Amino acid sequence: MNIFMSIFRTDKIPSLNRIPKELGREERFCERCGKRTEHIFYLVPKKVLMLYVKDHPENVHTTCMVCARSTILTGEDRERILGTASA
Ligand SMILES: [Zn+2]
Question: 62 alpha carbon to ligand 1 midpoint, in Å?
Answer without folding.
Answer: 11
